[in-house]
Structures are given as structure tokens and as C-alpha cells.
Write a structure and sequence with these properties.
The chain is α/β, with parallel strands linked by helices. Helices cover about 35% and strands about 25% of the residues. The chain has three domains: about 110 residues, Periplasmic binding protein-like II (D-Maltodextrin-Binding Protein, domain 2, 3-Layer(aba) Sandwich), CATH 3.40.190; about 80 residues, 3-Layer(aba) Sandwich (D-Maltodextrin-Binding Protein, domain 2); about 100 residues, Porphobilinogen deaminase, C-terminal domain (Double Stranded RNA Binding Domain, 2-Layer Sandwich), CATH 3.30.160.40. It has a five-stranded mixed sheet, with helices on both faces. A five-stranded mixed sheet has the order 7-6-8-5-9, with helices on both faces. A three-stranded antiparallel sheet has the order 11-12-13.
């Protein structure tokens, strides 16, 4: 029996079950979900007050290192960019929709919501983007699971909420009477790794388990999120403003768009870069790291370097002074 550690939220259980089913098919043995409670699940404080990124991952990782489970499934956007000692992200399955969506009662586009409309989100990035898209609306910091957030719109407590498209898709959670407005990634880049899952295990995991997890890896998804997380990692060293970043791999071309926002939406610094991963490289699905090198660095390493270059360009253009 393989034990998969997961948070107890409906979304975490749904996405963990997807991975459990896929892993069971590869490994040829049952995969049991092991619920783990984190501080982020029991506290009602704002995510920014709790410490932001990593608040949901810490307790899960402690359970994995203690041998309470054999692997974890995270929403990749919730993971800190720094490596966790003793652990490895052994697979990134195929990524789902990376966009944010606005949920309203009547389908009014975000930019047309009237003055005084209240939009719920706990994300500083989304708040900054809201103020750029429609400065007339009021952003309200909210917590709670997806169902409770949707209920607050349906009950007219909020006029809209901004959520991750992938979470809604995994839950199939849109009740009748609500409308969705997907937000294009070109103008509204989302969080690094949004829409992707990370399957994490110990770096000394049995080889059979490591091989089974690696079979779930999707090469293009790993390359894209490697670039996004590299942007975030480099920016965190010299910039504390909210960041939107999205990368996509089309053929052998990696395109990275990134924007750093002032918290109040009054300023932003952005860039858009496309690089070729063709020369000396070949992508191979299910290889664990998402690619094999033909010559020089592999595509994941090249993607990280590209993300680092993008972040340094943003810092050179004044991203650290955006506040």
C-alpha cells in the first residue's frame, strides 16, 4: 500500500485522488489517501499574515519526512521555491488551465462592474490586478474553501470573487446561477506554477516508487513551471511586490511573461521573452526531470536560466522600487 499525504480540503482531496488513481495504475498497487491538517487549514487569518507561500506545505512535509506517508500532492503555486532538504519534486503531471477567473451572479465583466462593487480575493497579486482592471471596485480579503467563496457571491455578500480556473475545474464546483469570466494570461498573468500539481517524495524513496511517480511527469509542464519559479525565486531576493508570471512551451520555443505590481495597482514593471530550446536539446516525456540533454544543459535547466534572466531584467528596470 502506497500512502499519499494530502490536506483535507475538498480541492486537495480531489486533486490528490486524481494522482492516486494514476499512480496506482502505474505502480500496480493501491494508493491510500492520508489526510494531514496544516496551520493554513485551521487558522482563519489572512494568508499574508500566516506567512503566504508555504503555509499549507510545512506540516505536510513534516509528515512525509517522519514517515507518516510516502508522497505528497501539492498545488505547485503553494510551494516555496527553495528546495526542501531531504525531499524532491518527483513529478509534475500535465498542467491544467493556469488562468484566473472572475465569478459573478450576472456575467458582468470585471472592467464593467460599477463603483462600490465588492470583489473577494486573498491574493495581493490579484488585488493589484483588480485595481488596474477596474479601480472603482473594492477588494476584500477573504479566506475559505471554494464552495464558501462561491456561496458568498450567490448570496450577494460579494459581487464577485477571483479564483483559479484549475481549482474550479478539478471540483466541478460552479453552481447554477453564477457566471465565469476567464482572465487572459497576457494581461492577467497568474501565480508561478498555477494550474500545476507537484508530486513530492523523499529523496531516498524506494526506486520502484520513484520510478512510478516519475512516469506521471509531463515534460512541457515541468519546463514551463521551472521558468516561472525561477522568476519568483530571483525576484524574492530583491523585490517584495506581488508578481504575475506565466510561461508556455510551444514546440521548442519557451515564452515567459512576467509583471511586478505595486500593491495598490499604481505601477507595474513587465517583460515578455521568448527563447529557443532547440539547439542541442531533445524533450522526453516521463524522464523524471522532464527532459534529457543531447548537449549542454537540459531544457529544465535552460528554462530556469531563462526565468532568472527575466527576473534580473525586471530588477534592472526598477521592479524592486515598485511599492
Amino acid at each position: 500500500m502506497i500512502r499519499l499525504g494530502t490536506r483535507r480540503s475538498a480541492l486537495a482531496l480531489a486533486q490528490s485522488q486524481r494522482v492516486a488513481d494514476a499512480l496506482s495504475a502505474v505502480a500496480g498497487e493501491p494508493v491510500e489517501l492520508v489526510p494531514v491538517v496544516s496551520e493554513g487549514d485551521v487558522s482563519r487569518a489572512s494568508l499574508s499574515q500566516l506567512g503566504g507561500t508555504g503555509v499549507f506545505a510545512t506540516r505536510l512535509r513534516e509528515a512525509l519526512l517522519a514517515g507518516e506517508c510516502d508522497l505528497l500532492v501539492h498545488s505547485l503555486k503553494d510551494l516555496p521555491t527553495a528546495p526542501a532538504p531531504g525531499l524532491v519534486i518527483a513529478a509534475i503531471p500535465a498542467r491544467e488551465d493556469a488562468r484566473d477567473v472572475v465569478v459573478t451572479r450576472d456575467g458582468t465583466p470585471l472592467h464593467e462592474l460599477p463603483a462600490g462593487s465588492v470583489v473577494g480575493t486573498g491574493s495581493p497579486r490579484r488585488i493589484a490586478q483588480l485595481r488596474i482592471r477596474n479601480h472603482r471596485v473594492e477588494a476584500r480579503d477573504i479566506r475559505g474553501n471554494i464552495d464558501s467563496r462561491l456561496a458568498r457571491v450567490k448570496d450577494a455578500e460579494l459581487d464577485a470573487v477571483v479564483l483559479a480556473a484549475a481549482g474550479l475545474a478539478r471540483l466541478g464546483a460552479i453552481p447554477a446561477g453564477l457566471a465565469l469570466e476567464p482572465l487572459g494570461l497576457a494581461e492577467w498573468p497568474s501565480a508561478a506554477g498555477q494550474g500545476a500539481l507537484a508530486v513530492e517524495t523523499r529523496d531516498d524513496a524506494p526506486q520502484a516508487l520513484a520510478d512510478a511517480i516519475a512516469a506521471l511527469d509531463d515534460a512541457p509542464s515541468r519546463v514551463a513551471v521551472a521558468a516561472e519559479r525561477a522568476v519568483l525565486e530571483t525576484l524574492e531576493a530583491g523585490c517584495h511586490a506581488p508578481v504575475g508570471v506565466h510561461a508556455e512551451l510551444e514546440g521548442d520555443l519557451l515564452r515567459v511573461r512576467a509583471v511586478v505590481y505595486a500593491l495598490d495597482g499604481s505601477a507595474r514593471v513587465g517583460t515578455d521573452r521568448t527563447v529557443s530550446l532547440l539547439d542541442g536539446y531533445a524533450r522526453a516525456s516521463g524522464s523524471g526531470n522532464g527532459a534529457k540533454a543531447v548537449g549542454g544543459a537540459d531544457p529544465v535547466t535552460r528554462a530556469r536560466r531563462t526565468g532568472d534572466d527575466v527576473a534580473r531584467e525586471l530588477l534592472d528596470r526598477g521592479a524592486a522600487d515598485v511599492s
